Amino acid sequence: MAVNSSPSATQVTSDVHVWEAGGASSPEFLSAWVSARLEAHEAALAALLAVEGPRTTENTLRLYDVAIEQLSLAGAQAGVLNSVAPEKAVRDQAQMEAQRVAMAGSALSLNREVYDALASMSLKGASATTRHYVERTLLGYRLAGVDKSEETRNRLQALHEKATKHSLDFSRNIQEGGKTIVATQSELEGLPPDYLGRHEPDARGQITLTTDQPDMQPVMTFASDAALRERMFVAYNTRAYPANKQILLDMLSTRQEIATVLGFRSWADLATADQMMGSAANVRKFLARLEEASREGAVREHELVLEFARTKQPGLKAIDITSRGYWYEQYRRAAFDFDSQSVRPYFPYEQVEAGVLETAAKLFRVEFRPADAKGWDPAVSVYDVYEEGRHVGRFYLDMHPREGKDKWFSAAPVVTGVRGRYMPEAALICNFPGGDPEDPGLLQYSDVVTYFHEFGHLMHAILGGQTEWAGVSGFATEGDFIEVPSQMLEEFFRDEKLLQSFAKHYETGEVLPAEIIRKMKTAGSFGRADWVRTQLYYTTLSLDLHDQDPSGIDFDEITKHLYTSLVPWTWLEGNRMYASFGHLTGYSSNYYTYAFDKVIALDFFAQFDPADLLGGDAGARYRKLVLEQGGSKPGRQMVRDFLGRDEEFAAFSNWLNEEFDNQLISATT
User: Which of 48-62, 405-419, 568-582, 653-667 has the lowest mean pLDDT?
Assistant: First the structure.
């Protein structure tokens, strides 16, 4: 939509959704909408600083929280449009707006007057939630450097501006750096019929494949042609190279400079200081435990898969990184009589969506209804969340690839919920097959697990978005607790009755047979040690990159060294995965979150009745003691509230070793 003049900020002040004000198609409206939010943010801070007399939570913290909610609203929706806006001009503007919001947040974190006002408040009679909010906010200020000199604060502000720009540029290059490869029909041998049907050869007999997930993942899993797998792997892992190599170095250098100015040895120590883990040293202790727990299993898995591959390709010396997924699939077919292609017809996208929604509705005692509202693109589905007839939230599902859209799978806040002011809203931004009337969107079973995972994030945002304060609402937990709800919900994929409620053949309506489900679960448990080793690789890489002097980093050398020391599959030269490792922007040094939270999530899941996952009181307790809390309690306290103790390694160990028990069962049947 073209506009002839730029709207004033006041024209869009009352609009909660930027796309309803024209922001999804107009850079000018987007900028004006963000400006209105930032004006409201500044007005709240000005009112806060103008307070006379004794400071209380009502006359000071309340105004601070209004400033936070407006900043969050602007940042969330600029971030969403940066990832999904149909027009590049809007995405470019959204990136600039996201940087502008980040700079306002940085300025706030270094505002000594605001800090002094918050620190001087009387907390007499304040709730535990309010006390936690204030304590965590003041800690954040100190970690930002608010107690430094004005000169140092100005320097930190400039450094944060640089770091934000590096992060946004790094992410944008991944988002818009998709590549294509060309294949012949014979090279697609082994791929599913529906995949072949979507990829017809052109007049020259050539087939173009993209590095988007629905094209890439089946090739890496099913294509029998090793050369095709290698071409796809290289294209996928170089889609942001070489542009992101220098950006990554600049980002690491800037982060390290920030840490040094603040008196920390490394960015990793700074980034973990306010997390559950507490320090980079504690992260390394945890990783050492994971390494020990997975070492023997990973060796055994590798030996079994390599031995099997040699029966199919005599003389094969090793399996390289591009063939790992393919040979795991082939081994599972032989060892467990399970071909993962056999379940794809039972997982058409629309049925999976309905199944995930039905499961979540029953587990969390809520109702989902299609909303009379629009999103930022016609492909977006919008749902309202109800509890006992009361409207409590809204979410947006943007679930299939399109040009310029972010290529990963994620959940994002849209509106931070504040009781009595804003209803929580969140979005899933994913890239599943489907979205075309001619394409049923058949999912691999790993895709279904991913859907459950992301929906766990979404329910955390909605149910945890009913708090009194924006600053502790929804996702606002410690960063290394945030993957607990997602990884807990994905475990529900194990349940046979649950799967059969929606896994039905897209052509015949046949329910996925129980025998196939059991084979799928048994086969799916094989490879868990390798999953842990892969997590160790990503985690150690993210930690090491942020825990040393960046000036001496050789990305290619460190990436190869860590891979070959932790993972048995042969390295492929030319792999530049670090340039498209998107989690380096958000999680920075703290990618350990996934493995750490897996331990907690599995302990949580063990509290549910395996014979009736959706029954009993575990779901209600989990919702009340964990999800509904948002960030209003420390993550450690939520763990203790739900479990009655700290998390234990036993559930994780049982999960990790389950594959070997299944191998023994398979060998004797």
Answer: 653-667
> How many residues are listed for the chain in this entry?
669
Residue labelled with tokens 């029998």: 224
H-run or E-run covering 552: none
Residue 429 phi/psi, 5° resolution?
A: -115, 105
Distance of CA 405 to the CA centre of its chain: 16
Q: State both tokens at 557.
A: 């050398």
pLDDT of 668 reads 37
C-alpha to C-alpha distance for 621 and 371, rounded to whole angstroms: 28
> DSSP secondary-structure letter at 493?
G
Closest CA to 649 of 595, 588, 599, 594: 599
- Contact call for residues 356 and 455 (beta carbons, < 8 A): yes
E strands in 60-204 = 180-184
β-partners of residue 429 are 398, 410
User: Where do runs of H (alpha helix) occur along 314-444?
Assistant: 324-336, 349-364
Would you call 486 exposed, middle or buried from its count of C-beta atoms within 10 A (0-12, 13-18, 19+)?
Answer: buried
Question: Which residue matches tokens 């969390």?
Answer: 364
pLDDT computed for residue 492 by the predictor: 93
Q: Where are the alpha helices (DSSP H) in 223-323?
A: 226-236, 243-261, 267-272, 280-312
Count of C-beta atoms within a 10 Å radius of residue 334: 12
Compute the radius of gyration of the chain from its Cα atoms: 25
Other Cβ atoms closer than 10 A to 262: 18
Q: Please, are residues 299 and 530 in contact by the beta-carbon 8 Å criterion? A: no
The Cα–Cα gap between 151 and 254 comes to: 17
Crossing angle of helices 593-605 and 528-545, in 10° steps, is 140
Contact 49, 108 (CB under 8 A): no
For 390, phi then psi, to 5°, come to: -100, 130
pLDDT tens by residue, 499-519? 999 999 999 999 999 999 999
Inter-helix orientation angle 514-525/324-336, to 10°: 130
263's tokens: 């008196």
Domains of the chain plus CATH, in order, are 9-109+111-144 (1.20.1050.40), 178-236 (no CATH), 345-529+593-667 (1.10.1370.40)
Alpha carbons 605 and 151: distance in angstroms, whole number: 50
Average of per-residue pLDDT values in the chain: 94
Query: Among residues of the chain, what percentage have pLDDT more than 70?
Result: 96
The reported pLDDT for the residue numbered 7 is 40
- Give the pairing of strands 381-387 and 206-210: unpaired
Per-residue pLDDT band for 530 (boundaries 50, 70, 90) equals very high
CA atoms in the 13 A half-sphere facing the CB of 605: 26
pTM over 0.90: yes
In this predicted model, what pLDDT tens digit does every residue of 396-424 receive, in sequence order? 999 999 999 998 999 999 999 999 999 99
Whether the CB-CB separation of 321 and 571 falls below 8 Å is answered with yes
Number of continuous H segments (helices) and E segments (strands) in the chain? 25, 7
- The confidence band for 20, taking pLDDT boundaries of 50, 70 and 90, is confident
Q: What are phi and psi of 241, to 5 degrees?
A: -110, 140
**Which residues are CB-contacts of 11 (< 8 A; sequence separation ≥ 6)?**
21, 32
